[in-house]
Design a protein that fits this description.
Structural class: alpha+beta
Oligomer: single chain
Shape: elongated
Number of strands: 25
Distance between the termini: 13 Å
Largest sheet: 5 strands, mixed
Strand content: 5-15%
């Protein structure tokens, strides 16, 4: 094909592209690479399949999609000017279409066409633009699925199958000359509807009610129902072909007539320019960064508290997977947040690999070993780990509490929360934030409008969860970003900009100065409370969480000491002297006397009673204490009896007996079979090593440049093998083969030809069948022939390979330039 010859097929158009252009196609539509096409023809065929075209259309912005929709209702092929006219109109609509919009369309159309061409949805020169057939079929109007433009079928399509007599009646009613040729009749009617002057004259004679009917149909849908005895206005329109029958009860406004009424426009509102994201407020960037850093610190504290809450083994897993509603409410109460927010923190910890199921028979959620490593990181590194996991996660906590397609409730940590579009939406929302000046908070509605413009098919398609999932994902992103400290006061923080553009190290460096420094002290007060005026160093925080209960959280955390909390520290192996020393070392105020008395009093009674396994027993050196327990009515359910002056036996298990006596006000200690006190350490339960949940990809991953280069070379080489010109074998030879089939030669002819090619350094075409029985055509340059094998440079694979001669079906010499 000469360089000036226009392409006749999509394959020819792709074959004429450069390597960079082919790589751009494969980058924009990575589904075409799985597997790598054998040649250009196979690439073109795959690019025209329904699934691939649908995926490509879903990734178009609104104006590129409007351009494709206009081509779908234009003649095939369509000149550039016709396409431009469909988008701008013919200028005869009394100024309804503003000049600035027309100028914007004129400026934007070459870019939209370039996008459609790059993605192989449109091919051909500007004078013969063709939309691929599958896309035209998808965007074509039908009664069940009207065109996105709202236009109906053409006159020729709507009158297909209409009787010649009926066509004559329409011609007579419109004043057109009669013709017995149906094709001429249809052409005459189409010419009338596309003639501005004659069409205006025809509509001037229409009743006002008839024009009202046309107004209701002109912008779509173009179909309407009629009764067996239509009203006079409808009958007037039907008689003149302005309404053509689709069935006995359905009529349609033909495309040519609708375009006249629309002043030639395919769309009511063309949108060549993306909507601008408006600013809702402008704030001091430093105040934004401080607010975001404060929220980032709160996020870390919340996740740490969640890990601590489930440290000894969290809630059980539902049979269908996930967390029960009761357990979610319990976690929300413990974290002092709403249930949707609790679901977000739980899903975030799970997505970051900090929580997982333990895999036991009584399966529960628990922290993973990776959570201990995470806790050992600096605060800024812990935050970047969470933020990175959130950006990539496909799990969508905003769905918790809703229902799936089958009406089943969606639970936190359940199996049905993955939405593959979530990462793309999150990153796109943050990218739109980043386009605004620092400190600027965008207006949510304009941001959603921009997202819908960028992905109109995906942004507005109804789903099982409700319409416009992409917009819901964007709104959830706004809320989650504020909770996580990605944004502050509605604007993007500087450390988030760095995370998106420069990576985790730079983000951590910017966030670190804004986070509060951990403290090594608390303020003890006489009312048995301790005030932590800021975040505490980890060893101090861990010990204090065992020794006291958190009473309130915020900028300063208040801890309260109770007999139960002190007993918890003693159960963990601490002695009273250790607790006194710990408080004295970490308090900026003197240790209050009431707190010292509390510790000593609980320690004096701690372990005075001993609980062991009989099924259970109580042992105490003081007989009076045992007498007191037996006399207490609250011990009746334990079914105690005296075995010895200092020993009571119980029917309850040791754990239940221990808790019951503590509820009665005693401070028993558990002991081992050897009589030693058992020390219970908090936070000992961990899952086996777990990997974080893998995000569910939205489609094939975008290939890197190395893969694209190799794929383009393979496609080019395969195309060379498929289309190379070959010498015709001498008359009577066995090597002749129909075009597209493998060559056939005898083993002797094959050996002689490849040996000659190796000696002369020429290239030959072979048919080859591999060990799996798959046949292929290859272009090779033989280098060496020996031992029943030929070693050659394979142009198809772009590498040197060795082929067994017995697997070569045949060989043919390539034609010299100008032959074939």
């Amino acid at each position: 094909m000469g360089t000036t010859t226009p392409p006749r097929t999509l394959a020819e158009a792709l074959r004429a592209r450069g390597d960079e252009s082919l790589a751009g196609l494969l980058r924009a539509r990575p589904d075409l690479l799985n597997p790598v096409p054998n040649d250009i023809t196979q690439l073109a065929t795959r690019a025209g399949t329904r699934a691939s075209v649908v995926r490509a259309l879903e990734h178009l912005d609104r104006f590129a999609l409007q351009t494709a929709e206009a081509l779908a209702v234009a003649p095939d092929p369509a000149p550039y000017d016709t396409l431009l006219s469909l988008l701008t109109g013919d200028g005869l609509d009394d100024g309804e279409q503003r000049d600035d919009v027309g100028a914007a369309i004129t400026a934007a159309l070459p870019g939209a066409l370039a996008t459609l061409r790059e993605q192989a949805l449109v091919w051909g020169e500007d004078d013969r633009l063709r939309l691929v057939r599958t896309a035209r079929e998808l965007l074509a109007p039908t009664p069940q699925h009207p065109s996105p433009t709202g236009l109906g079928p053409t006159v020729a399509e709507a009158t297909a199958g209409m009787s010649p007599g009926r066509l004559q009646e329409i011609l007579a009613a419109t004043g057109l000359p009669a013709t017995h040729d149906p094709v001429s009749a249809v052409a005459a009617l189409s010419a009338l509807f596309t003639d501005r002057t004659r069409m205006a004259a025809l509509l001037d004679t229409a009743p006002a009610e008839a024009l009202s009917v046309l107004d209701r149909l002109v912008w779509g849908p173009p179909y309407g129902e009629v009764t067996p005895n239509p009203t006079p206005p409808v009958k007037w329109l039907r008689d003149r072909g302005l309404l053509l029958p689709v069935s006995t009860r359905t009529v349609v406004l033909p495309r040519e007539a609708a375009l006249h009424l629309r002043a030639g426009r395919a769309h009511r509102v063309p949108e060549p320019v993306p909507p601008v994201v408006a600013a809702a407020a402008e704030r001091d960037p430093q105040a934004v960064d401080r607010a975001a850093a404060g929220q980032a610190f709160m996020a870390l504290s919340t996740v740490e508290e969640l890990l601590k809450l489930w440290d000894g083994g969290g809630p059980t897993i539902l049979r269908a997977g996930g967390l029960s509603v009761r357990e979610l409410k319990r976690a929300a109460a413990a974290l002092d947040v709403t249930e949707p927010v609790a679901a977000f923190w739980i899903e975030l910890a799970y997505g970051a690999g900090l929580l997982a199921s333990d895999g036991e028979t009584d399966e529960r959620y628990a922290p993973t070993p990776a959570s201990d490593e995470w806790l050992d990181l600096s605060a800024e590194d812990r935050w970047t780990h969470l933020a990175t996991a959130w950006l990539a996660a496909t799990r969508t906590p905003g769905l918790v509490g809703g229902q799936d397609a089958k009406g089943r409730a969606l639970s936190a940590l359940g199996p049905e929360l993955d939405r593959s579009a979530a990462p793309d939406v999150r990153r796109r929302v943050l990218a739109l934030f980043a386009e605004l000046p620092p400190g600027t908070a965008p207006e949510a509605e304009t941001l959603l409008r921009r997202l819908r413009w960028e992905r109109p098919l995906r942004g507005s398609a109804p789903t099982a969860e409700g319409s416009d999932l992409r917009s819901r994902l964007a709104l959830w992103t706004l809320n989650e970003a504020e909770l996580l400290g990605i944004t502050g006061r509605g604007a993007l923080a500087a450390h988030t900009r760095a995370l998106l553009d420069e990576g985790e190290d730079r983000a951590a460096a910017l966030l670190s100065p804004l986070l509060p420094e951990p403290l090594d002290h608390v303020l003890l007060q006489a009312d048995l409370t301790a005030v932590a005026p800021g975040p505490l160093e980890r060893p101090l925080a861990d010990m204090l969480s065992v020794l006291a209960d958190v009473e309130s959280k915020g900028g300063a955390t208040v801890y309260r000491f109770t007999p139960g909390s002190v007993r918890r520290a003693l159960d963990a192996g601490q002695a009273a002297s250790d607790l006194h020393a710990f408080l004295a070392a970490h308090s900026r105020t003197p240790v209050p006397q009431p707190l010292s008395y509390l510790i000593d009093d609980v320690a004096r009674r701690h372990g005075h009673l001993r609980i062991g396994a009989a099924s259970a027993y109580v042992r105490c050196d003081d007989e009076a204490v045992l007498n007191e327990i037996l006399a207490d009515r609250r011990s009746t359910g334990l079914r105690l009896r005296r075995l010895a002056p200092t020993v009571l036996a119980a029917q309850a298990d040791p754990g239940s007996l221990l808790e019951a006596l503590r509820d009665m006000g005693y401070a028993p200690a558990a002991e081992s079979a050897e009589g030693d006190v058992l020390i219970t350490r908090a936070g000992a339960r961990r899952t086996p090593p777990r990997t974080p949940p893998v995000p569910v990809p939205e489609g094939p991953p975008t290939p890197d440049d190395t893969l694209l280069g190799a794929a383009v070379r393979a496609i080019r080489a395969g195309d060379t093998a498929a289309t190379v010109a070959r010498k015709e074998p001498p008359e009577g030879a066995t090597g002749s083969a129909p075009s597209g089939t493998l060559p056939r030669t005898t083993p002797a002819e094959t050996l002689a030809t490849v040996q000659a090619a190796a000696m002369t350094g020429s290239t030959v075409w072979i048919g080859y069948v591999n060990a799996d029985g798959a046949a292929s055509q290859r272009v090779i340059a033989p280098v060496r022939v020996e031992g029943g094998f030929v070693t050659a440079y394979d142009h198809t694979a772009d590498e040197v390979r060795t082929y067994p001669l017995h697997r070569i079906t045949g060989v043919a010499e390539l034609a010299e330039e100008g032959e074939g």
